Amino acid sequence: MKRTWTFTKAPTPKNTCTTCYSLSNPASAQNPMLAVFQKTVAKSPEGLQTPQQEPPVNALKDGLLSRSFSAVHPSAVTINLADSGLISYSVDKQNPLLPRLFAVVDDIFCLFQGHVENVAPLKQQYGLNKTANEVTIVIEAYRTLRDRGPYPADQVVRDLQGKFAFILYDSTSKSTFIAADADGSVPFFWGTDSEGNVVLSDDVETVKKGCGKSFAPFPKGCFFTSSGGLRSFEHPFNELKAVPRVDSSGEMCGANFKVDSNSKKETGMPRVGSAANWSQHY
């Protein structure tokens, strides 16, 4: 059955193709984007939510956060993902050094911010044409991982050399794939509202509005999937531990997630380079 997606306040972007919008504008260094995912689609890790959050906020109820985002960014485009959540982005106030791209391919939605240095070899690796860019590479890398799984998810992200953060949602499987580079080069925050829904944005004030004290910078060198949760792509065999954050007033404020060098994951995964299908472990 063909799905119909609702795009609200959608202007006509310049230099568009049928699936990919380039959202660059050198006039400003702000980069507003937002995603909210229902807790059944993206379950936040333990430790991110601060206990006894008051007042309780549901970021998805009555379009609370998307309306607030659109009020601050009147040119914002919002994609309603039905009962899974929403994605919003603005077509102005861009950082020319960290441009943002949006694409939809076969009901896979992706927001990408930053740049990848090894675009040419990645195009060849995934069999893409000359017009492919970072956002289409991420989508194709995800599809390859999902459908064939020739190598593990951590390698897929580690192969992206550059400064980036991306948010991907697959409406067919109702799953997410989210990552930030090893240096945390792109401002990127996440949090959880009182209902356990996950909020992601490059604007910390937007995340605060939806999550109160239950937020933190997205862990650098890490990726998040609906099935596997939060993992480090630099240290894929180590566990991550939550380290509580304290704000300037001494109050608990979410958690940072650090690689636990003393803890190794127990895994029955196939070795890298074997003929096994990694997609079952995604």
Automatic annotation (TrEMBL):
Residues 262-282 are annotated as: Disordered. SMART domains: DUF3700. Pfam families: DUF3700 (PF12481). Signal peptide: none annotated. It comes from the Eukaryota. Residues 34-259 form the DUF3700 domain. Gene3D superfamilies: Glutamine Phosphoribosylpyrophosphate, subunit 1, domain 1 (3.60.20.10). This is DUF3700 domain-containing protein.
